[in-house]
Structures are given as structure tokens and as C-alpha cells.
Design brief:
This protein has 18 helices and 13 strands. Strands 3-2-1-4-5-6-7 form a seven-stranded parallel beta sheet, with helices on both faces. Strands 10-9-8-11-12-13 form a six-stranded parallel beta sheet, with helices on both faces. It is globular and about 60 Å long.
């Protein structure tokens, strides 16, 4: 192995990408200790040794309308990043999720001769299947989290490697419910609900009031219930606490946590989560989950007919059927969400059945992902920088 240092560019755009990006950096650094990582990432990627050129929060927007509001700023970031990597070519560039940002960047870099990979496939199996041509132009190899994705991409002419989901390995180490309640100083017999309204500021703006009103209705049906609300950043925490402050009605037995999402879910009986990675995390931890999502009406109107699967939650997509309830947009009301949570809270048979399904899902996704990531990416690194 050469001792010469070289650079690997990495870009992630949100909290889930930060976690996966940190895992990828550690996987490569274990084989390539001389590699330097630079690009866009969050605190986990920084802790793994990455030099951050742009704060990750600049990319953390979702929905057509929200992206349009920040379009010029995001476009400027992508142009500056492309110029940086073209002037200082990395031995490899890896985009972590964030396909609307990363695919265009990858097309430019690949056309300049820079090897490119993408970690987390765009959801061509759920919607926007017309992306496959762009993906072929953008990436030298796609790393996918779910076993059914690789054959779909390969049929579209995109080289793909199934890595398994790093979360399935990470979350296997999380203590069980009793141990986590002791750690969080919660009564062993308490009824505990974890509320996860989202990781982006735009999501908290849409979901905070909904989740608080839902919590109030749950508390009316289960007066001794305790709520845990983990939030990933200071801006999201401040926005949620502002919603809590202006809320009318009785006090809630609610604790806001800074981070510790996995701890909150592990301690909970039931999880109420905004659609996204948190729903998969709940399933991998064996916790029944109710899925909710709202977005601005114009974004919803533009997106509502783009999908062809009847569900959006990752547990349901992976199961191929509705195994956990989903409530989207106008169906995401406090009444619907509270009833679904209470049904799970008081039905031990359903919870047990879900835990069995989730355990099977976790086993399927639990691969040696670090080894698979390294084996897929190291051959792409150019200029003899790696063996």
C-alpha cells in the first residue's frame, strides 16, 4: 500500500446521511489510513476526521417549494464545490444520498475523469424511475442499502453493490428497553412514547404542532404516559420548544433530548415518527411505529402522483405490505395519530407480532457493511493511490 496521501471527496446533506457518511469514512480509513476526506458533512463525519468545506445544514431542505426558496444558494454551493474538486481532483468522490444535489455534481466530476460513487440509491423503485439514465452518467458504482435495489439498477445499466444497512449493525448494540429506561431514569413499568417529528428545520415547522396536539390526545387516553422528544440540532430544538411554549392546554409529561434518538426509541413502547430514516431505525430496534408526514400544500400537490407504491414508510416498503400505519398530509390529524398510537400501546399481541417481523428484517439487513463498502470503493480509487 502506498504511503502517499490522497483526497476522497464526500458530500452528505442531512442527519441520516451524516451517520452513513461517517460509517463510510471509517470503513475506508481502516484500509486507507493515508486518505484525507473533505466535502460537506455533519458532526459525525467531522468526528470521523472529515474536513468540512460547507455546513451540512445548507442542504437540509425537502420538498419542491422549500428547495425553490433556497435554490440560488444551493446552486451556488454546488458550483463552488464542483470548481473546488475540478481544481483539486480527488482520487474518488462519493455522494451520500441527497440525489438532487449530488447526481448533478457527480455528472460533472465523472465527465472530468474523476471516479464517482453514490451511497444510498435514489428511490427509482418507488418513483422517479426516469432518473436511471442520469444515474448511469453520474456514477461509476452505486452502493445500495436494500437487497432488492442492486438487481433493479444492474438492469438499468448501473453497476451496483449491496452493502447491507449499517444501521442494522449499529442498532444491534443498543441496550434493550429495560436497560435503556434505567439509563434514562425512567420507571420500568411506565408507558413511554418516543416522538420524532423530523431532523430538518422545515420538518419541525410542519410537524411540531401536530405532534404536540397528538401527544395531548394520547395523554387524555393514557394519563400516565411519558413522552421523549429527541432533536438533532439546536435550531430544531429551539423551534420545537417554541411550539411547546405557545401551546394551549394542560402540561405534558414530556422530555426534550438533545440527540439520543436511538436511546429514546429503545426505551419506548411505541414510536411516532415523521416518514424517513427514523421509521427504519424504530423497526431495527424492534419498536412499533406510527408514521406521519405533512409538507406545504403546494409541495404535496406537486408530489402526490409521483409515486407508484401505496406506502412511503421504509418498514412497509421492505415488508411489501402495510405492517405499520401511515398517515400523510390531510390524513395526518391528531385524532388519527393518537388513535393509532393508543391501539399499539394497549395491544400486546400486535406489538409482539411486529417485533417478530422487525427482527427478521434486521437479520436480512445486517451484513458486514464496512467490508463491503471498502471492497466496492477501493478499486475505483485512481492514480495508484490505493492497492
Amino acid at each position: 500500500m502506498t504511503r502517499a496521501p490522497f483526497t476522497i471527496g464526500v458530500v452528505a446533506g442531512e442527519a441520516s446521511g451524516d451517520l452513513l457518511g461517517a460509517h463510510l469514512i471509517k470503513a475506508l480509513r481502516g484500509r486507507l489510513p493515508q486518505a484525507r476526506f473533505t466535502g460537506i458533512g455533519g458532526p459525525r463525519m467531522q468526528a470521523a476526521g472529515m474536513e468540512v468545506l460547507v455546513p451540512m445544514e445548507k442542504l437540509a431542505v425537502r420538498g419542491y417549494v422549500e428547495v425553490l426558496r433556497h435554490y440560488l444558494e444551493i446552486l451556488g454551493i454546488r458550483r463552488r464545490l464542483a470548481a473546488h474538486f475540478l481544481e483539486h481532483p480527488p482520487a474518488l468522490f462519493v455522494g451520500v444520498d441527497a440525489p438532487d444535489f449530488n447526481l448533478d455534481l457527480e455528472v460533472k466530476l465523472k465527465s472530468a475523469g474523476i471516479p464517482t460513487a453514490h451511497f444510498v440509491s435514489p428511490s427509482i423503485w418507488a418513483w422517479r424511475g426516469n432518473r436511471i439514465g442520469k444515474i448511469r452518467r453520474a456514477v461509476s458504482r452505486m452502493l445500495v442499502l436494500f437487497p432488492f435495489e442492486a438487481p433493479l439498477l444492474e438492469r438499468g445499466g448501473v453497476p451496483a453493490t449491496y452493502t447491507g444497512h449499517p444501521l442494522a449493525e449499529m442498532l444491534a448494540e443498543v441496550p434493550g428497553r429495560a436497560a435503556m429506561r434505567e439509563q434514562l431514569r425512567l420507571p420500568a413499568a411506565a408507558k413511554v412514547i418516543a416522538l420524532l417529528p423530523g431532523s430538518r428545520v422545515s420538518e419541525i415547522a410542519q410537524m411540531a404542532d401536530l405532534f404536540l396536539e397528538t401527544a395531548a390526545q394520547i395523554a387524555a387516553g393514557a394519563p400516565d404516559v411519558q413522552f421523549l422528544v429527541p432533536l438533532v440540532s439546536r435550531p430544531t430544538r429551539e423551534l420545537f420548544e417554541a411550539a411547546l411554549y405557545r401551546r394551549q392546554g394542560g402540561a405534558l409529561n414530556l422530555t426534550v433530548l438533545f440527540g439520543h434518538a436511538h436511546d429514546a426509541m429503545a426505551a419506548a413502547d411505541v414510536v411516532l415518527a415523521a416518514s424517513g430514516t427514523a421509521t427504519l431505525e424504530a423497526a431495527l430496534l424492534g419498536r412499533p411505529v406510527v408514521i406521519a408526514y405533512r409538507m406545504p400544500r403546494l409541495s404535496w400537490w406537486m408530489m402526490r402522483n409521483r409515486g407508484y407504491l401505496p406506502y412511503v414508510g421504509l418498514p412497509n416498503i421492505l415488508a411489501g405490505e402495510f405492517i405499520v400505519p401511515e398517515f400523510l398530509q390531510d390524513e395526518a390529524t391528531p385524532e388519527n395519530l393518537a388513535q393509532a398510537v393508543l391501539n399499539l400501546l394497549f395491544d400486546g399481541t400486535v406489538r409482539s407480532r411486529l417485533e417478530t417481523r422487525f427482527a427478521a428484517l434486521a437479520r436480512e439487513l445486517r451484513q458486514d457493511s464496512a467490508e463491503r463498502i471498502a471492497a466496492a470503493l477501493i478499486p475505483l480509487i485512481r492514480n495508484g493511490a490505493a492497492p
